[in-house]
Amino acid sequence: MSAGNSLLPRGGYELTPEQQLAKEIAETTNGNLSKYLMIVCGAVSAAVIVWKVCERIIRLTRHVSCLNNDKQRYFAIPNQKFAALKRHLLYAPVFSKRHNREIQLSKAINVGTLPTRFQLLFLVSYFVSNVVWCVIDIDYSADMATACGVIRNRTGVLSTVNMVPLFLLAGRNNPLIPLLNISFDTYNLIHRWFGRIVILEALAHTLAHYGKNGWVFTPPAGNFILPGFIATCSFVFLGIQASSPLRHAFYEIFKALHILAATAAVVGLYYHLSASPGLFKWLCYVYGVIALWSFDRTYRIWRVIRSHVGGSRSRTIVEALPGNAVRLTMTLARPWNAAPGQHAYLYMPAISYWQSHPFSVAWYDGVEDVKSDRLATTNQDLLAMQQQRVSFIIRGRTGMTDSLYKKAVAAPGGRFETSCFAEGPYGGHHSFDSYGTVVLFAGGVGITHPVPYIKHLVEGYSEGTVATRRILLVWTIQTPEHLEWIRPWMTEILGMDKRRDVLRIMLFVSQPRSTKEIHSPSSTVQMFPGRPNINTLLGMEQEHQVGAMAVTVCGPGALSDEVRLAVRNRQDRSHIDFIEEAFTW
């Protein structure tokens, strides 16, 4: 939390030349370590940027090369070295299979998910480097007070500096998301582990201060110690209340307390550093944290205002659907730059006035603005007179989603109009336009993620703007009534030009009430009882694969892990990439 002078007692007596030299060396070391920490973060980011730029160049080259190539055989051949890297490191969970499936000690106790091996390698490396920097170059042969003083300063510096990436990764508008093309879910994982590092270093700093001079809470020393102690207590509280069992059991309360405790920690740290002139130089990191948090909050507010304040009034309709779900359709005052794979955070004051929840954008299209007095004379005028309509499918579970579903069911005709504010869109950074074969797996309400991609790819195939020649949707649902969730949109997709040439749909009903419910409308839209054999389906697709293959999944953790395992096991047979859409909290 701070980097005070361990060799200068708070009483202020003069230092001997030897003590002054040791003080200067210690301050130089602490300053260098803070720079090294920033250099490491920058180097990692730069390496990922280079990797992602190369990846984008390859995809662009493949996209252009395959537009008029129906075979695309060159791009279906795997690079065996890179395939092995994906199988054993990039796509591999820590152990054999489990990654996104939550670890539950009981129905009420959820302890979270496991990272991939690559994520674990990064987190362990960063944690170990912080431990090394905390203990390196310390004279442990000196007396305990002197050693504690150096450790106090070192851990204080590192804890303060680590708060910058900690707050950066927590923001929804983190600029690294589009720059590195890494999902918010991954940054959220790193944010949690960086938070634990900050907490441990803050604790070590506070305990080392006790070993050096003890804790004095009365003025004048108390003006320095007390704010720092409050900051440390706030950090510890953040770590406890952000633990997975508490976070999952009381999520809405967690979010409110998390913001309050983080604010207390930053304010306490600010006054802690401000109380000693020798620590002023570390305030720049606190200012950086405040700037990052302020930017994110301000930009989030701007996103909401821009979508809902304009020439026309925004409007939200909620409809109850079978299967404990609702369809929420918003007509925005101003259009979004909509793209497949996006999500938005919804604020509904009538349901939960102070909370926002993320939902995938299931559909977006234009609707005529009936209040416009303008007369369209060109296509550009016609587009300008349209409002954008975005739709979400929300499954009623607990908290806000359950209240929303119950209100829709109780409304006349199972439909009501309400006030809703959308913050977004976020995401949508993955493109499948360069892949000759695209396989999309969905489980339950996870269908909202692939539907916009399917519409985009079928349109692109018809217009000759994508490399895609084969699209397979595999959707697992519990009962056939869940088909009503996307029926109007799927009807539109099935009626699109050249759809039969490129799109096949396989529906798996895991809990059919009778065999009469299972019937296949056509050879390209088939329905089956039970659950899909993912490995078999991917094997069949690889036999007829065109170009590079992309496999994406959105659904329960168990489904995601099954698809991930099947993709890993087939890396040596053809070029196959895996994209998982997940939001763990």
UniProtKB/TrEMBL annotation:
Its main location: membrane. The keyword Thylakoid does not apply. GO terms for molecular function: ferric-chelate reductase activity. One of its GO terms (cellular component) is plasma membrane. This is Ferric/cupric reductase transmembrane component B. Pfam families: FAD_binding_8, Ferric_reduct, NAD_binding_6. The gene is freB-0. PANTHER family: FERRIC/CUPRIC REDUCTASE TRANSMEMBRANE COMPONENT, REDUCTASE, PUTATIVE (AFU_ORTHOLOGUE AFUA_3G10820)-RELATED. It comes from Fusarium oxysporum f. sp. rapae. It is a multi-pass membrane protein. The chain crosses the membrane at residues 36-54, 223-241, 253-273, 279-296. The keyword NADP does not apply. GO terms for biological process: copper ion import; intracellular iron ion homeostasis; iron ion transport.
